[in-house]
Every structure is written in structure tokens, then in C-alpha cells.
Specification:
single chain; 127 residues; alpha+beta; 2,3-Dihydroxybiphenyl 1,2-Dioxygenase, domain 1; 2 domains; five-stranded mixed sheet; 2 helices
């Protein structure tokens, strides 16, 4: 069994799509638009077969993104090396994204950084 895809609602669908394509190497489909409900989405595919569905629909509740809460915490992306973690973290910092932690080696041995990106949602960059 595998996770087929993860989905997240966003306010700015195109900006979210561009983030995952430009910074994390995803490939976007052409998008979907249900004209009856105004629901729109993109599927972003990654090299290992994993996919992320970005969704938008008027009226979806936009609540705070407190990191210390139950529910999904972050999406982690493996970039292959410590040097690539460092490079991508600095590229994101230079682009104005907030680096919440790292790059660092965690207590359980992961080398990672955590970025508040895509409307405050956390993206973990790891080896």
C-alpha cells in the first residue's frame, strides 16, 4: 500500500503550484475547473510517483496555521544530500520565505530545515 496523494486547500492556487514546481521540482497537470461549484485544482507530480493535489474553492475556511496542534504538521521533501538541503534552504530564505528551523541535525538524526511556505504551511527539506 502507498499514499496516492496528499491534498491541501490554498487561497492562491497558481502561486502554490509555482512554489512546488519552481522550488521542489514538481510537474503540474493542466488543472481542473468545475464551473458549477467553482472548485479548481492542480495535481503536482514528483519523480518518485508521489503527488500533491492543490485545491481552491470560494468560501473554504482559512484558519490559523498554529504549528503546535493536532492534524497534519508538514510535508517533507527529500532532496538527496546535506548540501542540497543547505542550498535549497538558502534559496528559499533569499526568496523571502521564513525558515522556521535549520538546517540542522535533529535529535533523531535527520538533517533538515523547515520552511513556512505556501500560505504558512510547513515544508520540511531533508536528505
Amino acid at each position: 500500500m502507498k499514499i496516492e496523494h496528499i491534498a491541501m486547500f490554498v487561497n492562491d492556487l497558481e502561486a502554490a503550484r509555482d512554489f512546488f514546481v519552481d522550488y521542489l521540482g514538481g510537474t503540474s497537470n493542466d488543472g481542473y475547473h468545475n464551473r458549477n461549484t467553482s472548485f479548481r485544482s492542480y495535481f503536482i507530480s514528483f519523480g518518485d510517483g508521489s503527488r500533491l493535489e492543490l485545491m481552491n474553492k470560494p468560501g473554504v475556511l482559512d484558519t490559523g496555521k498554529d504549528t503546535e496542534r493536532t492534524g497534519y504538521s508538514h510535508i517533507a521533501f527529500s532532496v538527496g544530500s546535506k548540501e542540497k538541503v543547505d542550498e535549497l534552504t538558502e534559496r528559499l530564505r533569499a526568496a523571502g520565505y521564513i525558515v522556521k528551523s535549520g538546517p540542522r541535525t535533529t535529535g533523531d538524526g535527520y538533517y533538515e530545515s523547515c520552511i513556512a511556505a505556501v500560505e504558512g504551511n510547513l515544508i520540511e527539506i531533508t536528505i
